[in-house]
Specification:
Layout lengths: L6 H18 L3 H7 L4 H10 L17 H14 L1 H21 L2 H12 L5 E5 L9 H4 L3 E5 L2 E12 L4 E9 L9 E7 L5 E3 L13 E12 L3 E2 L5 H37 L1 E2 L2 E2 L4 H29 L5 H26 L9 H9 L9 H14 L2
Parallel strand pairs: 1-4
Antiparallel strand pairs: 2-3, 3-7, 4-5, 5-8, 6-7, 9-10
This protein binds flavin-adenine dinucleotide.
């Protein structure tokens, strides 16, 4: 693997960084304070290709390579955790199932529509009130065939983007007998009668990323809205989550980078005992550790993305990168607050928001505990 970015990737990073610095980062405080999703910036992301990162050009996307997709989410994370999560969920969770498994007619109907920036986005709903980590055993939302339709009944939880999505790809049980071949993914347009999106959840952070419970009461969609194969929903979901984990890792690196930059600046400016606190070895060590861990997480993450791009198995590397990057971001953000002293605890300083936003990352798209299970499975299988 070449550890330097190629010219195209470098230009892409610069382009996305400049866009985020101008359109996303200056609004991050307001987005957090008002819980308003940043539509203004999102509209402009369509033409830039940020809403079709994984979508081939033939379907209206930018179809960038996996490292470039990670770079985009890293830069968005640097600018605003809320906006980054919504865009990551749209790309990694909402559009990827169609790209990888969707029928030709689903792809041509929906992909260019949700990647243009002129319409709403996409969402994926796996989690339920009683099922998160254990989707195979826990999902009870069901879909049954009636004539040429699926009839869906059940309740989902924690659906990112539900209220700003054109459709929700929903994980449902299609075989009441259970087992690993009993789940399927079905595309449900959000204007389907019987689908109800609850109010936005009140969360610790990521206030500008709308998260909702969703209920389905006799929601009917055509049989053709099945995404991929009937009974393969669990397997499809797991491969989608491998890619999604690179996305969450990337956001975490961006959040850590932003907190780190604030900490460096503050340490240079703040004086105590007659000199800048940056002159104190205790502060220098926190900054040195942060710089090292950010660099390491980025290298691991790009390696996972590179393996993905090569078409090789990257399940273990994605889990490692997600686990390390998300836990690293918590440490770096925690120390960025420490370096700011009392001011770090104030919502006037961005490190407070960044810390709250980072907290989700060890939970969403597979908790740290689940990442360790995945990694351990690989480690033990090879011995
Ligand atoms: C802001 C936000 C956005 C989200 N967006 C989406 C979304 O868009 N779509 C979606 O489908 N879901 C989404 N989720 C849900 C998220 O993916 C789940 O919360 C996560 O997968 C964990 O599931 P759970 O909350 O049910 O926790 P549980 O699975 O109940 O886990 C609870 C605790 O037990 C631990 N645990 C569980 N099983 C094991 C085990 N075998 N070994 C060790 N420890 C274990 C977990 O690690 C965790 O610490 C979102 C959640 C949040 C908070």
């Amino acid at each position: 693997m070449n550890f330097d970015l190629n010219e195209e990737q470098k230009i892409w990073r610069k382009t996305v960084h400049e866009f985020v610095a101008k359109e996303v980062q200056p609004k991050a405080h307001e987005v957090d304070a008002t819980s308003e999703f940043n539509w203004e910036a999102t509209r402009k992301m369509g033409p830039l290709g940020l809403l079709g990162l994984n979508i081939p050009e033939a379907y209206g996307g930018s179809g960038v390579d996996a490292i470039s997709a990670a770079i985009a989410l890293e830069e968005l994370g640097w600018g605003c955790g809320s906006t980054a999560l919504a865009i990551a969920a749209h790309n990694g969770l909402g559009t990827t199932p169609l790209v990888l498994f969707g029928s030709e007619s689903l792809k041509s109907k929906w992909l260019s529509l949700v990647s243009s920036g002129k319409n709403k986005l996409a969402a994926l709903s796996l989690t339920e009130p009683g099922a998160g980590s254990d989707l195979q055993g826990g999902v009870v939302t069901k879909a049954v065939k009636e004539g040429n339709e699926w009839v869906i009944n059940g309740a989902k939880m924690w659906c990112t983007n539900a209220s700003i999505a054109e459709y929700i790809i929903t994980l449902v049980r299609t075989d009441a007998k259970g087992g690993s071949r009993s789940l399927s993914q079905i595309l449900v347009p959000t204007n389907t009668p019987g689908l109800r999106i609850g109010p936005a959840e009140k969360k610790m952070g990521l206030h500008g990323s709308p998260t909702h419970a969703v209920t389905y009461e006799d929601a009917r969609v055509p049989l053709g809205n099945l995404v991929g194969e009937e009974g393969k929903g669990l397997q499809q979901t797991l491969s989608i989550l491998d890619g999604g984990r690179i996305g969450i890792g990337a956001i975490s690196i961006g959040l850590a980078q932003a907190a780190f930059e604030r900490a460096v600046n503050y340490a240079r400016e703040r004086k105590a005992f007659g000199k800048p606190i940056a002159d104190q070895q205790a502060i220098q060590w926190m900054l040195a550790d942060a710089a090292t861990e950010i660099e390491l997480a980025r290298t691991m993450l790009y390696k996972a993305a590179w393996l993905k791009e090569q078409g090789r198995n990257y399940n273990k590397e994605a889990a490692m990168a997600k686990m390390f990057a998300t836990e690293m971001a918590e440490r770096v953000c925690r120390n960025a607050i420490q370096i700011h002293g009392g001011y770090g605890y104030s919502s006037e300083y961005p490190v407070e928001r960044i810390y709250r936003d980072a907290r989700l990352m060890t939970i969403g798209e597979g908790t740290s505990e689940i990442q360790r299970l995945v990694i351990a499975r690989h480690v033990l299988a090879s011995e």
